[in-house]
Write a structure and sequence with these properties.
Order of helices and strands of chain A: EEEEEEEEEEEE
Distance between the termini of chain A: 41 Å
Oligomer: heterodimer
Largest interface: A-B, 25 and 27 residues
Strand content of chain B: 35-45%
Number of strands of chain A: 12
Shape of chain A: globular
Number of helices of chain B: 0
Strand content of chain A: over 45%
Structural class of chain B: mainly beta
Structural class of chain A: mainly beta
Distance between the termini of chain B: 35 Å
Order of helices and strands of chain B: EEEEEEEEEEE
Chain lengths: 116, 112
């Protein structure tokens, strides 16, 4: 069975601090995708990144970076020099890559509050 | 930018009323989803579709129904709204090949 765990329910940081959001996943599949989504107070889910199971290269996009480690089944997300606009709920998700029948498995989310 | 739209954004309705939440996408995606979510909480899959004339129930039991007569349109209907249906409903779509899903802005439903 597939499962995504985000152990941090809520995190508060002061602006300009770095923060890492943890994501641990379980799957029996050898081919799968991992995702991060951001949900700001307005409610929509904004896609941030997709990573497939064969690509363990870490990725950096501006202040955002992602660390994918297959050995520990983790896909952690770091925000460098956090800003108030980063305040949101962040969801990690898992999906099989090829099976039409499978859907996303979302983690429970981590609420990040960045204080001025 | 994703081209998936939900209407209405906000809806307050009385108990017992029938409502339809609209979801449309212009990306030609085959797979579409409906999620129910209390604000900032877990997402619960209530319905999904592989394509036209395909509908399946999700992980969370729901009294709502869906239809998929056209690829771009995936409406959700509640025949008789109840206060327990008060929630946010999010629609999403993706291609069949396992890429990311794109979400609409959501409908915040309040049943009084």
């Amino acid at each position: 069975a597939q499962k995504v765990t985000q152990a941090q329910t809520e995190i508060s940081v002061v602006e300009k601090e770095d923060v890492t959001l943890d994501c641990v996943y379980e799957t029996r599949d050898t081919t799968y995708y991992l995702f991060w989504y951001k949900q700001p107070p307005s409610g929509e889910l904004v896609f941030l990144i997709r990573r497939n199971s064969f690509d363990e290269q870490n990725e950096i996009s501006g202040r955002y970076s992602w660390n994918f480690q297959k050995s520990t089944s983790s896909f952690n997300f770091t925000i460098t020099a956090s800003q108030v606009v980063d305040s949101a709920v962040y969801f990690c998700a898992l999906s099989e890559a090829l099976n039409y029948g499978q859907n996303f498995v979302f983690g429970p989310g981590t609420r990040l509050s960045v204080l001025p | 930018e994703a081209d998936i739209y939900q209407t209405p954004r906000y809806l307050v309705i009385g108990t017992g009323k029938k409502i339809t939440l609209e979801c449309s996408q212009t990306m030609g995606h085959d797979k579409m989803y409906w999620y129910q979510q209390d604000p900032g909480m877990e997402l619960h899959l209530i319905h999904y579709s592989y394509g036209v004339n395909s509908t399946e129930k999700g992980d969370l039991s729901s009294e709502s129904t869906v239809s998929r007569i056209r690829t771009e349109h995936f409406p959700l209907t509640l025949e008789s709204a109840r206060p327990s249906h008060t929630s946010q409903y999010l629609c999403a779509s993706r291609t069949l090949r396992g890429t990311e899903a794109f979400f609409g802005q959501g409908t915040r439903l309040t049943v009084v």
